[in-house]
Design brief:
- The two termini are 38 Å apart.
- The protein is 35% helix and 32% strand.
- It has helices at residues 55-62, 84-89, 107-117, 122-135, 151-163, 181-198, 209-215, 233-240, 255-262, 292-305, 320-330; strands at 4-18, 24-39, 44-48, 70-75, 78-79, 91-94, 169-173, 201-206, 218-223, 226-231, 245-252, 267-276, 281-288, 308-316.
- Strand 9 (218-223) and strand 10 (226-231) form a beta hairpin.
- 38% of the residues are buried.
- Helix 3 packs across helix 4 (122-135) and helix 3 (107-117) packs parallel to helix 5.
- It has a 6-stranded mixed β-sheet with strand order 6-7-8-3-9-10, with helices on both faces. It has a 4-stranded antiparallel β-sheet with strand order 2-1-4-5.
- It is an alpha/beta fold.
- Bound molecules: adenosine-5'-triphosphate and magnesium ion.
Length: 333
């Protein structure tokens, strides 16, 4: 049996848009437009997509916090609407980092209190809390008020909280959002460890393509409420690696020429990676059909005629970002 099955989930939100002081208009937002995927037992599954894609909505439906308008979903075989209580028993959930933490309690008290709410016997709870504090490296700060914690410390306690019931399935919504590199790495390490050593099934959302690539066994790319593709990071990258990806650093009048590069035959897309308009400097990413060698002379020529100078060119291995650009540009954005 699969750990998670989502079948054609649809969710609409009705929102009011203010039009002046006394008038507002109703607008329907289609947060999910038929989202389907399955997650295998023991897998780390990444739901990757930009802001507003529908990641949190998906996690909320799967954790019974929201009802879908249509479609079905199962967690360890239990239906998220008809067997909501059973579903919740399978899950440890971390929604946004500070959600569910009491600021006037210490980190340790938060975990002990939550354990009591989950009916874990006090003696077991004590041991478990100590182990989790160690796991997330918070023993030293365990007796400070959460109010005095940094974001990274709150994240670690929230994460530990999701692990209290030792549930077989974990949902982590943007677990490293806003954390410094060291804290983010710590969280990622623990996620890997939970998967490897304890065989947990983990669904995590992120908009960080690098993180999804580094952590997930399989990834679903979601955008505007639709799943665009599902596969292992390698499979996804192989699907776009028919051609090279160039990263070109240009100086001078680069504005007009970027569009022109896009219309060269064999160029699949052009994207501005970064720019410093004041310094007249930009880094452009160019996806090609074939090899860099075949297309480079034309590209350099177009740049030069447009008044831009090439400072550096590198040929990149396709990243998940290229997969994403490819998928979204194919839809004619
Ligand atoms: N309670 C709500 N009321 C109205 N619209 C909502 C509500 N919750 C979400 N939405 C809308 O649904 C869409 C999907 O939102 P969702 O929070 O699932 O995106 P997300 O992928 O988690 O984005 P982010 O990366 O910003 O967290 C967005 O357009 C959002 O504005
Ligand atoms: Mg979200």
């Amino acid at each position: 049996m699969e750990a998670i099955v989502a079948e054609k989930l649809v969710k609409r939100f009705e929102t009011k848009i203010r039009k002046g002081l006394f008038r507002s208009e109703k607008k329907v937002v289609e947060a999910l437009r038929g989202v389907s995927f399955t997650i295998r037992r023991g897998e780390i599954f990444g739901l990757l997509g930009p802001n507003g894609a529908g990641k949190t909505t998906t996690i909320k439906i799967l954790s019974t916090l929201l009802l879908p308008d249509s479609g079905d979903a199962y967690v360890n075989g239990y239906h998220v609407v008809r067997e909501a209580r059973k579903v919740r028993e399978q899950l440890g959930v971390m929604l946004y980092i500070e959600k569910g933490l009491y600021r006037r309690l210490t980190g340790r008290e938060n975990l002990e209190y939550y354990a009591a709410l989950q009916h874990i016997p006090p003696s077991d709870a004590k041991r478990r809390v100590e182990r989790l504090l160690e796991l997330v490296e918070m023993t030293e700060h365990a007796d400070k008020l959460v109010d005095e914690y940094s974001l990274g410390m709150k994240a670690r306690i929230s994460f530990a909280r999701a692990l209290i019931t030792d549930a077989p399935i974990l949902f982590l919504d943007e677990p490293t959002l806003g954390l410094d590199p060291a804290s983010a790495r710590k969280i990622r390490d623990v996620i890997r460890e939970l998967s490897r050593r304890e065989g947990k099934t983990i669904l995590l959302t992120t908009h960080n393509m690098w993180e999804a690539d580094a952590l997930a066994d399989r990834i679903a790319i979601i955008d505007q409420g639709r799943i665009l593709t599902i596969g292992s990071p390698m499979e996804l990258k192989a699907a776009v690696s028919k051609g090279d990806v160039l990263q070109i650093e240009v100086m001078g009048a680069y504005n007009g020429v970027i569009k022109k590069i896009g219309s060269i035959g064999g160029v699949r897309y052009v994207k501005l990676d970064s720019e410093e308009p004041a310094a007249q400097r930009a880094v452009v990413r160019v996806g090609l059909d074939g090899s860099a060698r075949d297309h480079l002379p034309t590209i350099v020529d177009v740049l030069a005629r447009g008044g831009a100078r090439v400072r550096n060119i590198s040929v990149l291995a396709p990243s998940l970002e290229d997969v994403f650009i490819e998928l979204t540009s194919r839809r004619g954005r």
